[in-house]
Amino acid sequence: MNFQTLSELAVLCEERGLGIGALMLEEQSAESGRSIKQEFATMSEYYGVMKEAVHRGMHEDTTSRSGLTGLDAQRVGAYNTAGEPCLGGPAGQAMAYALAVSEVNASMGRIIATPTAGSCGIIPGVFLSCQERFGWEDDFMVSGLFAAGAIGYVIANNSFVSGAEGGCQAEVGSAIGMAAGALTELRGGTPAQAVHAVGLALKNTLGLICDPVGGLVEIPCIVRNGFGAVTALAAADMALAGVRSVIPSDEVIKVMLEVGSAMPEKHRETAGGGLAQTPTGRRIMADLRRKK
Locate the Serine dehydratase-like alpha subunit domain: which residues (predicted)? Predict the structure, then answer.
C-alpha cells in the first residue's frame, strides 16, 4: 500500500483525484495482482453475505447455542415499527440491523468479520439501513466497503483490531471508525471529512474493555454492535456538518494503541474481569460449564 496513515491516505486521494474507496480498490488490485474487476467481485460477494445476515437476523430464529442471546434485533425492529421509540427512524433501523448480524454470528451463522466477528454487525447495520433509506445501488455500497477497508488497514497497522490485544475499543471502536469514515464518503464528504469522522468515532470508544460473559461473543458484544452503529451515524453527520477532530485521527489511533497496551489482561477478552466477573457473569459461566 502507498499509505500507512490516514493523513497519507487523504493526501494520496487528493493527488490522484480519487475517493478513498476508489483509491483503495486500485491499491488492493496492485498489491494482490488481481484485476480491479476481480477485487470488486470479491467485495461484492462479501456484501451479499452481509445482506443475507441482516435478513436472517431480522426474520429467523437466532437463539444462540448457549441460550443467552437471540431475537433482540427482531424485538427492536418491531418496537421501532409499532411504538414511538426514543431513537427510531433510520438510526433505530441501523441499530436493529447491527444486532441482527451479531446475533447471526452468535448462533453460528455466516457473517463477514468487519474487522472481527465480535464487531461484525456495525458496518452491515450502517450500510444496509442507509442503502434502503437513500436508494443506493449495491455497487455503490461495495465502493464504500473499500473505503472502510482502507480505514481498517490503517488502524490495524498502527494499533489493534483485536480485543485480545487492545480491548473492545480495538474491535467495536475500529468498526465504528470504519463505518463512520466510509459513510461520510458515501454521503458526498471529502476524504478529509471522512478522516475526521474516523477520529470523532474512535474518541468515543477509547478505553472500552473486552469482557465477554462466559468467554462467548454474546454479552455485552451484541448490544455494543447496536450502539456502535448509532455512534457511526452520529460521527458521519458531525463530520459532514463540518465538525473536525481537533486531535488528528492518526494521533487518536496512537492513543488507542497506548491505552490498549496498558489495559490489564483481565480486560482483554479473557473473561477475567469486567462484566464477566460480576456475580451474574460468574453464575452464567458456572452454568455453561455444567452444560458441557
Answer: 16-276
The DSSP bridge partners found for residue 254 are none
Q: Tell me, what's the pLDDT at 83? A: 82
Beta bridge partners of 160: none
Amino acid at position 240, single letter: L
Which contiguous run of DSSP H or E holds residue 111?
none
CA distance 172 to 189: 23
Query: Greatest CA span in the chain, whole angstroms?
Result: 60
Tell me how far apart the alpha carbons of residues 181 and 45 are, in angstroms, rounded to a whole number: 22
Phi, psi of 210, rounded to the nearest 5 degrees: -110, 110
Residue in the block written with cell 494520496: 12
What is the DSSP annotation of 194-250? HHHHHHHHHHTTTT--B--GGGSS-TTHHHHHHHHHHHHHHHHHHHHHT---SS-HH
Nearest to 124 by CA among 46, 193, 219: 46
Residues of the chain with pLDDT under 50: none
Whole-number Å distance between alpha carbons of 70 and 100:
9
Contact yes or no for 87/77 (Cβ under 8 A): no
CB 254 within 8 A of CB 112: no
Q: What is the dihedral of CA 132, 138, 144, 145, to 10 degrees?
A: 110
In single-letter form, the type of residue at position 56 comes to: R
The CATH class of 6-291 is mainly alpha
Sign of CA dihedral 229, 232, 236, 237: positive
pLDDT at 56: 98
Q: Which amino acid is at 172?
A: V
Closest to 50 in 3D by CA, of 133, 152, 143, 125: 125
Q: Please give the pLDDT value at position 41.
A: 99
Residue 136: what are its φ and ψ, rounded to 5°? Answer: -75, 150
Query: 171 near 201, Cβ under 8 Å?
Result: no
